[in-house]
Amino acid sequence: MNKSIKLRLIIMNILQWAVWGAYLTSMGSYLFSVGLATKIGIFYAIQGIVSIFMPTLMGIVADKFIPAQRLLGLCHGISGIGMLGAGFYGMMAGNEVSFGILFGLYAIGAAFYMPTIALSNSVAFKILETNGYDTVKDFPPIRVFGTVGFILAMLFVNFVSIDGVQFQNSYNQFITSGVLGLAMLLYCFTLPNCPCNKETGSNQTLAERFGLNAFRLFKDKQMAIFFIFSMLLGVALQITNGFANPFISHFQEIPAFADTWGARNANALISISQISETLGILLIPIAMRIFGIKKVMLIAMFAWVLRFGFFGAGDPGAGVWMLILSMIVYGVAFDFFNISGALYTNMRTSEKMQNSAQGLFMLMTNGIGATIGTLSAQAVVNHFVNNAAEPDWSAAWYVFAGYALVVAILFMILFKEPKNLEEKIA
Question: Are residues 230 and 273 in the same domain?
Fold first, then answer.
């Protein structure tokens, strides 16, 4: 086996996720600074909208026309150009930024980045299998370095500044992402070939290729309840990515907190969430065996209540411990539902429908749910912060916490865990 393969895939994963980490958690602060605070939700919602169809389209292209590693690079190249365009436009426009132009350039970047998440996994699986590795055993340690790349990019835009302005508060975060995207373009063309399999899906209808046959699962009452709650919990996924940085950074305008480390380094503080996410993955096998799938999902839902509640009560001064606790529980909130939900979907569906079912799970959470969530969250923040005589961030966070609590209670009452899953987990 080629021992350098793992190192090459580790580098690929670092770059793959660093592209996203450069702006995902800090974009809200830049938009806030250029007068687009009321549009933050739209910028995050477009990620969910394009996730509904772009990954499937690019998957078809990779199957039929362009080797996956090259398509991965091309998508990053187009995305990188879009992000560089957004960054350089921000540089030229200063504080007179046009929503239409900035959003259009950013949307191109997002549209071609989102399918690379699935493509990068496909490339890694194919290369590992070709070189005789066990994907179940060898991929997770490689994928962890993706989170490392995300964190490094977050810290880079937090601590690097030009003329006293941190990248996390300026257009430079888009430029950073664009440069990393172009680096990924070049790197992908050095990876081993992942040839097209033109026979894959040759007998499938277009509806089957898009995974629409998975909607048959809604005929099963418990599966229907599960997917509906996947969407309802998906509402929470992008809220803190969009609004945590502006929330923490706003304390710089309050004299009592202006000089605190947390207020000045929001992205560094938020990076604890990603570290927690990495550790949360390690807890899942143990939690699944002890509690079962339903309780693990409930733990995730109540963790979202704490995530938002600690934000509402905390501050970067004496209350910074609450912000840190919010970051710590994020790993459980995010991982426990996403991974246990994917496992539940896999266990409850037949082998020939598993891929489509996983696509439906992603559609309900990261597509429909996240899109509704960011747009709704924007309305809440507009009401309590942007359009209020006295901005009240705490009230907004408590609304989000209350929503998560209601979802958790309803899930606890309505969802029934099939008994035979306990044997499969064991």
Answer: yes
